[in-house]
Fold this protein.
Amino acid sequence: MAEAAATANPKNSSAPAPNSFNLRRLLDAITIPALSILTAFLLSGFVIAFTSPEVLALLPQFWQHPVELLTTMLKTVLTAYAALLQGAFGDWGAILQGFQVWLTTGNSTELLRALRDPFESLVAATPYIYTGLAVAVGFKGGLFNIGVEGQLFAGAIASAWVGFNIEGLPWFLHLPLALIAGILAGAVWAGIAGVLKATRGVNEVINTIMLNYIMFLFTDWLLSDGGPMRGNAGAPRTPEIYPSAYLPRVLPDPVRFHWGFFLAIGAVFFVYWLLWKTTVGFEIRTVGASPTAAKYAGIAVGKVFVLAMGLSGGLAGLAGANELLGLNHYMVAAFSPGYGFDAIALALLGKSNPFGVLAAALLFGALRNGATRMQSLATVPVDIISVMQALIIAFIAAPEIVRWLYRLKRPAQHEQEVFARGWGA
Amino acid sequence: MFGMVATSVAHKTADFAQRRRWIVGGVIVVVGLLALWFFAIQVPADELSKYRFSGGGDAVQLPVVELPTAATNWILSLLLIGFGVYHLVRGLTNSAVLFGVIAFLLLAIFLTWSIRGASLNLTGLMESTLIRSIPFLLGALSGIMCERSGIINIAIEGMMLTAAFVSVIVGALTGNLWIALVAGVLSGALIAGVHAVFSIQFKVDQIISGTVINIFAVGLTNFLNLRWLTTNQELNNSGVFAKVPIPFLADIPVLGTILFNQIALVYIALILMFAVNFLLYKTRWGLRTRAVGEHPKAADTLGVNVFKIRYVNVILAGMLAALGGAFLTLGSVGRFDKLMTNGRGFIALAAMIFGNWNPFGSFGASLLFGFMDSLQLKLQILTSVIPSEILLMAPYLATMIVLAGVVGRVRPPAAEGIPYEKQ
Amino acid sequence: MPPILELRGITKRFPGVLANDHIDLTLNQGEIHALLGENGAGKSTLMNVLYGLYHPDEGEILVRGNPIRMTGPRDAIAQGIGMVHQHFMLIPVFTVTENVMLGDESITNGVVLDRKKVAREIRELSTKYGLEVNPDLYIKDLSVGVQQRVEIIKLLYRKADILILDEPTAVLTPQEADDLFQVLRNLKARGNSIIFITHKLREVLELADRITVLRLGKVVGSADPQSATSAELARMMVGRSVILSVDKEPAQPKAVTLAVQDLVVRDERQNIAVNGVSFQVHAGEVLGIAGVQGNGQTELAQALTGLRKVESGQVTILGEDTTHANPRKISELRVAHVPEDRQADGLVLNFPVEDNLVLNEYYRPPFAKGIVMNFDAIQTAAEERVREFDVRTPSIFVNAGNLSGGNQQKVIVAREFSRDIALLIASQPTRGLDVGSIEYIHKRIIEKRDAGVAVLLVSNELDEIMSLSDRVAVMFKGEIIDTVNAAETTKEALGLLMAGVHEPGASPQPQTPNAQAETLDEIA
């Protein structure tokens, strides 16, 4: 393949300037992700249908009542997905009505209640944005940070500590301090793997897995009976942080939407700028694309490994701080439904591009939020989302399957993704 | 997957080897001195540590060994210090011996100190160590089979979880534990088959493929657990394997209890350890497997079918991991709980690395990790300053330390993680 | 009697390339048939087809008169065909025995590997053919020459009687090469038939019974080594008469730019690769480092450019001590480096040409201000460099990996030569390139020299060394065994030095009649 690439006639490959807008390229870029999501939805639909007690009950009588079985299946899936969509995007009729009530009577309760759902999707998307960026930055630097979940815990712990230990600071000092603590904790925790890679050449994958479990156990210990961060409440959790460290809400209760979302959007722009507009980003991308060429070009490869890992961990830590300061206001062991692990799917789906990650995070946030509604309305367990995510990663990572399913042609110029190459070699 | 270890570390090897000896020797001496201070000098001279070897219901009651805590730890700590000095001066090349001795002495000191003024059934501790090490061993054997052929396996956790789930349901439905076991093993083979197709056929990054499997297994088992098992509790009850005492051998005091009065799966796991070792080093298949994991192109030019070897090994690996998963349900609690593998697949991965991709080495690591696991349970009952969470960290920390090459040195198969491209 | 092996009309296409174009070739029982051609002429592709690694698009293969369908190496092995690949196919952590038996294992008791029996067979083979090797040693502990013996034993163990050797002398010292030739003659005498692939004319004339020349995927002719001359063969190989010499004025050396004193460098395996080397390069001269591959030249260049740690000794560039400096520091001292491995070190293949053209200047004005990069400046510079150095690329936004080897090298040369430089360290600057690109790059190097740049040229190609250098230092086993004036030496003299033969005082006499032909040796 290398031979083919090296000798292919360069005149055949059209290559417009990378920053010029091109609809075709955009379409090409989103075809596979879009079809992957679609296929994952279809397959998950089958899982939902064939695990449904009603469908299973009808299954033995398939030959007597085939139509009934099929309609039951369809109904099961559609009910579930309808609930999912409503949970994800809200009930727009109710919103309009609430809006009317608010305009006429000045009573906003109904409106806010209707707005809760769509905004909750953004609330769920926020940590995804950070963790997706974390994995993406790692990928760009040729690093596979599988330890985002642990770094997220580290960030949450540190910001909780700052949040409940320091009293009397004004919010404009306390909140940044808590956020920075979260960033630093995540960066340091990931940095360990970066330093070990830079100095001892140890692959980061195993180390970040190990660091995850160490951090989970460490959290358990902190929150255990008599543990150093155990609060007074009977449950294993920290004390509540002071309101001066809260990430403020944008809208009144019950809408939990908070400023962390805008901070996350800021992070997207920052990461984009850093990776593609600065020398730091150039170095990270060069090391990711070819460590040997980077060394030749005078880039301190080891330092870049530590830096990229630290940056990745800092973003992960920010995700933890965001959840803690914006939503829970105290730390419990089970505060993340696996934002760090899902992040791998996000980075792949977004092709490690910050804006791609943003789009993927919004989608996943909506899915996760909608799934909660699906569980309560259609009694379909929320974990179907994980199945869906696994399928999405699988299809994105092996686009041949999608191309084969939909009879697509291979792209003219084989694009090598950073995650698709052999590594460790 | 750790190819970097070999290359970028190599140029530092010469000076590092000597420095490492000094560092390690020094650390052993310091740790020995600390142990002496905290676990011997600080202990009142009249305190006793009692080791029992028989459970309450055993037919033969062995005498209780009563050791003076302080004096015992004086001796053990001095031994440890002496060992550290020996390493400093002479240098030990066999890292397995180095590890074994340090681990044994430290654990003995710690244990003797922990049970001062109380007693501990050592036989029981050993037995639970063995039982707890079995899933690690099977998971590690899975990792070895897979990675020795050049395919990274971080999906041990997902394979175990799937098999744990499947075997419980099939056990409950059929009422036959052996059918349940076979079903579990087949589910592992199926999942591993997916890993194989992704990594070998589609050349997907093997870490991503493994991650997909882990996420999928967690999602699907949680989903089905909620959808089926919580509402139909009778589906979540497979029963467990009964112990199979081996005639005569089971009657040997201590040893018989630990080794020869277990469920069949324990014997099977131990036999499989020998089998995998034999397969890898003594047979044609093993030679070819290792060749494919080191230099697939070389094997290919000699007519070895790289893809076939990898496919078969990955699927066998899935079956081994699945046995480990089924052990957690059919061999122990007889029911499935959400996320019940609880990281054991990753500890198995750690045991594989710790054991340098070698069955016996991995068994040693599994025993060590199993011991930590049992110990923390015992210590929760006894009063201990060391929280159980810290002890549970040991496998993960130990793996990071060996990988960094500070103590000992591990070498992964050279072609690991690189998809093979046939022209 | 039919030829033992016959290829008829073999054609193999890769996307965009016709690697083999209707090639016919015969091999008779008990002969050594040399396959001669430049890099990229299609020799290795043809042999991979013959060995079943590639499937030909057209044509047929006949062994002992019977048409054979090859689906993989297993079929080739079954036909008695064996191949020693250019890059050895040995597993470093396996013993010699294990490497030899792999794929054709002896078994006892039904399943157990019979290592003893294989070891015994290896000992027998090694005495029979003079291939001395200890079957119980690990490959990683063997020298390159011994590893090659293991490769040959692998073939003999499989009872192969059609042996293919792909560039077998590239990694050997002249002595080792002579030993190999002896083994091959021995094998021939015992009835084996051998295809010997090379681009070195001397070897062909010395060893072969018959010669076939390939160019651009086609057979361009065959020759009889008894009557053929180097010049004829070279012309056939390259397609026109070649005088790979560059028009250049005598050098005007000025101040010392690079001074190396007692330099010691270790290789990956911690062996001493460069052993106490001292030399100086003056502004305005080209110092060539000649030697057989693997005698420390690679490590020397890496150490001088900061890519490899220096064990002891001193390196001074423009008066500054750079012994332990990093690549960035050295580059900023106005040192340009054309690295040996252009695809791994010199380029980021997945980056566009424009980024590759500023790969070691991206952080400096005008390409960056602080940490913010100026892409307009990069584009402007890139366009200019592409134009000036005639890089054939559809645009500067195309990934460097999509360019041909020659154009990739031009990107590197454009990048390194566009800077203001005082010292140029060029390692194998033309390896694997077509003749046109070679001439172009040679011209540019001499231009730099004439502009007052000190040039250190490391090359395995004696011809390149001879045509570019003003002085030549010959490396052998990590040491510079002599430094000679290029104008006053001959290829034979250098060849002897490269083989480690050094008689102080015996200054070589140019042998006029032979000299011209010999200059053409070792082309490409």
User: Anything to note?
Assistant: Chain A is about 70% helix and 0% strand. The domain at 33-405 of chain A is CATH 1.10.3470 (ABC transporter involved in vitamin B12 uptake, BtuC). Chain A has one domain: 33-405.
